[in-house]
Specification:
The chain has 116 residues and is an alpha/beta fold. Helices cover 34% and strands 22% of the residues. It has a five-stranded parallel sheet with strand order 2-1-3-4-5, sandwiched between helices. Helix 2 packs parallel to helix 3. The longest helix is centred in the first third of the chain and has 11 residues, at 15-25. It is globular, with a radius of gyration of 13 Å.
């Protein structure tokens, strides 16, 4: 049988950060890449029945991650509230974490993301 590979949508405007994320999770997960908030909202709408999680950079051009998460959470898909959205940000101050959670994110990880 074919091993199940969860679909992770990644919103990240920096190529090298995306390559790092892909190196960490790419062997076990299917990954789709958006380079700004507007693209991730569109990617989610196109793949919402298959999306298992979203990794969301906060500071991106066109539309930031907070606005993108808010738009995704407000769509009418029945599972939209249970799909995990994880904020990724170089800012790890408590108000940054609170802003992420207020926008509908489930967790907040600091960048750079290091493997152990």
């Amino acid at each position: 049988s074919v091993d199940y590979r969860p679909l992770i949508l990644v919103a990240e405007d920096d190529d090298s950060n995306f390559k790092l994320i892909k190196a960490i999770i790419g062997r076990k997960c299917e990954i789709m890449w958006a380079k700004n908030g507007e693209e991730i909202v569109s990617l989610f709408h196109e793949n919402r029945d298959k999306t298992d999680a979203i990794l969301m950079d906060i500071k991106m051009p066109v539309m930031d991650g907070l606005e993108a998460a808010t738009k995704i959470r407000s769509c009418d898909h029945p599972d939209v509230l249970i799909i995990p959205i994880v904020a990724m940000s170089a800012n790890a101050f408590s108000d940054d974490v609170q802003n992420s959670l207020a926008a509908g994110m489930n967790a907040h990880v600091s960048k750079p993301i290091w493997t152990r």
